[in-house]
Amino acid sequence: xxxxVTMIAWNQNDNYVVTAVNNHLLKxxxxxxxxxLHDLVGHADxxxxxxxxxxxxxxMLSAGHDGNIFIxxxxxxxxxxxxxxxxxxxxxxxxxxxxxxxxxxxxACTDSHGHLLIFGFGCSRPYExxxxxxxxxxxxxxxxxxxxxxxxxxxxxxxxxxxxxxxLVDVDGNPHPxxxxxxxxxxxxxxxxxxxxxxGYIATSDGEVVEQVIGxxxxxxxxxxxxxxxxxxxxxxxQLEQDQRTGADQAPSGPQNGEGTPRRG
Length: 265
Hints:
Blueprint: E1 5-10, E2 16-21, E3 26-30, E4 36-40, E5 47-52, E6 59-64, E7 68-73, E8 78-84, E9 86-87, E10 91-92, E11 95-100, E12 106-111, E13 116-120, E14 135-136, E15 143-145, E16 151-153, E17 168-169, H1 178-181, E18 197-203, E19 209-216, H2 230-250
Antiparallel strand pairs: 1-2, 2-3, 3-4, 5-6, 6-7, 7-8, 9-10, 11-12, 12-13, 14-17, 15-16, 18-19
């Protein structure tokens, strides 16, 4: 097999370059002389993740399709920590991406099974405040193409980027409580009434009919006690400003009643 480089990463102070090769080895090079310093052995499949520590020039993280995550000391060529992403009943999960936190005390990874893995020091209690399963209700909605070959959501016939913010649901499609719906960008300041999804029965690909979120409940904005949509308010404000500018442009510009030419602030 002809060796091929799959990933390259410089360490924090640029003294070293680490390359991942498709023979599952990691190689540490002197960036000034090009000298090979270490072969890092441990991965059993190709590596597509190399992340340097934000301030410690000795530390490099690697992860790959074999489910292994390694923390290396590249100055010594040794393993510091190792984690294997085993998923009960499903084998291992390939690791697709990893990132360090700015303070270097934590790192997060995503895998092929849709898991977010968070490693670090301290207590995991803060992460217990959110549900274990969080999906958007639109994640697996079918798409179609219109006559212009543009992509549309099959159910609503809308372009996906023009659809309202989705709802958070569990793996079975059951919506989470309203306090979690505010975590979705675009729903932070919505009234509680706008955070309750509309449920309906939908046939799955195998013919089974299940209850799922089909959209947002329609609420009359004119009803007393309900907060108006922030986006609607912005549209009204922009329309008002445009009307004012149009009126100013059409107003007579010459002096009136002996007054001088009006000045714009």
